[in-house]
């Protein structure tokens, strides 16, 4: 526990200044975290990121992560009509590689590489876009994820009796799941009272409940992936906390959906 607390304090001290400043430093940091996250998910499957398929997958990831203005610069430099065409070209290249090596890499592995690139890439892309939209919104997203996680842990530990999904995550409870939502709503209301940023309290509460549920499902998805590959943590970059995916699994689900559904009325 002591190691976890020290790591969390150091990680927060390094991460929060980037969040506050935003711009290029924040984008580069998020891009670096996405690369590490992609490395972690490929490692679970036993695929090297330095192999030809791994490199093609990495390029696909980068095209997915970079913000819109950077993507436009890439498109202009290469002469393509859109970033989607570049991604499509990379997918085709990966499929052609399977043929060239006579199925030494399977289509299952190709599918895993591409799914991993989209899973990690889009989540971190929308983290960048959320910060570009406004500091208060990325703070809100982080607040919801962190308070949900903490609330679920402490409420579950204190009151938890009924298992939520023991086949996927044995320690999670229904009481913790509900407690995480309640704690997230309380903190979101407090943030709104201090710095109004949402379109009223009713919409904020609805959004927060939705985001908290989705965030906890993101956590369960990553738990399911780890259980499938029989690994405890996605990585060991953060002592006591595991890897990048272990820390950002909920956020990878929350930020894209808040954008897709235009829940902030943008």
From TrEMBL:
Q: Write the record's keywords in alphabetical order, separated by commas.
A: Cell membrane, Lipid biosynthesis, Lipid metabolism, Membrane, Nucleotidyltransferase, Phospholipid biosynthesis, Phospholipid metabolism, Transferase, Transmembrane, Transmembrane helix
Q: Does the keyword Lipid biosynthesis apply?
A: yes
Q: Which GO terms describe its molecular function?
A: phosphatidate cytidylyltransferase activity
Q: What is its main location?
A: membrane
Reactions performed catalytically? a 1,2-diacyl-sn-glycero-3-phosphate + CTP + H(+) = a CDP-1,2-diacyl-sn-glycerol + diphosphate
The UniProt entry lists membrane topology as: Multi-pass membrane protein
Q: Name one Pfam family in it.
A: CTP_transf_1
The pathway where this protein functions is: Lipid metabolism; Phospholipid metabolism; CDP-diacylglycerol biosynthesis; CDP-diacylglycerol from sn-glycerol 3-phosphate: step 3/3
Q: Share an example GO biological-process annotation for this protein.
A: CDP-diacylglycerol biosynthetic process
Name the GO cellular-component terms: plasma membrane
Q: Which PROSITE patterns match?
A: CDS
Spell out the InterPro entries in the cross-references: PC_trans
Q: Which family does it belong to?
A: Belongs to the CDS family.
Which named protein is this?
Answer: Phosphatidate cytidylyltransferase
């Amino acid at each position: 526990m002591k190691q976890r607390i020290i790591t969390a304090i150091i990680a927060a001290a390094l991460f929060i200044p980037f969040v506050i400043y935003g711009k290029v430093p924040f984008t580069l940091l998020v891009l670096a975290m996405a690369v590490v996250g992609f490395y972690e998910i490929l490692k679970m499957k036993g695929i090297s990121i330095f192999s030809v398929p791994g490199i093609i997958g990495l390029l696909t990831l980068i095209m997915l992560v970079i913000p819109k203005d950077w993507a436009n610069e890439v498109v202009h430099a290469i002469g393509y009509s859109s970033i989607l065409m570049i991604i499509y070209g990379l997918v085709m290249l990966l499929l052609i590689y399977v043929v060239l090596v006579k199925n030494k890499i399977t289509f299952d592995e190709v599918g895993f590489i591409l799914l991993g690139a989209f899973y990690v890439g889009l989540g971190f892309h929308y983290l960048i876009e959320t910060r570009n939209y406004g500091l208060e919104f990325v703070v809100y997203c982080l607040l919801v994820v962190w308070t949900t996680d903490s609330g679920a842990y402490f409420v579950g530990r204190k009151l938890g009796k009924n298992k939520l999904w023991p086949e996927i995550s044995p320690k999670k409870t229904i009481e913790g799941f509900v407690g995480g939502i309640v704690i997230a709503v309380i903190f979101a209301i407090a943030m709104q009272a201090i710095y109004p940023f949402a379109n009223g309290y009713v919409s904020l509460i609805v959004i927060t409940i939705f985001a908290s549920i989705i965030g906890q499902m993101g956590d369960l998805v990553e738990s399911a992936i780890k259980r499938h590959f029989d690994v405890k943590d996605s990585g060991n970059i953060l002592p006591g906390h595991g890897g990048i995916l272990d820390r950002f699994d909920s956020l990878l689900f929350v930020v894209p959906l808040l954008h897709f559904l235009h829940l902030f009325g943008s």
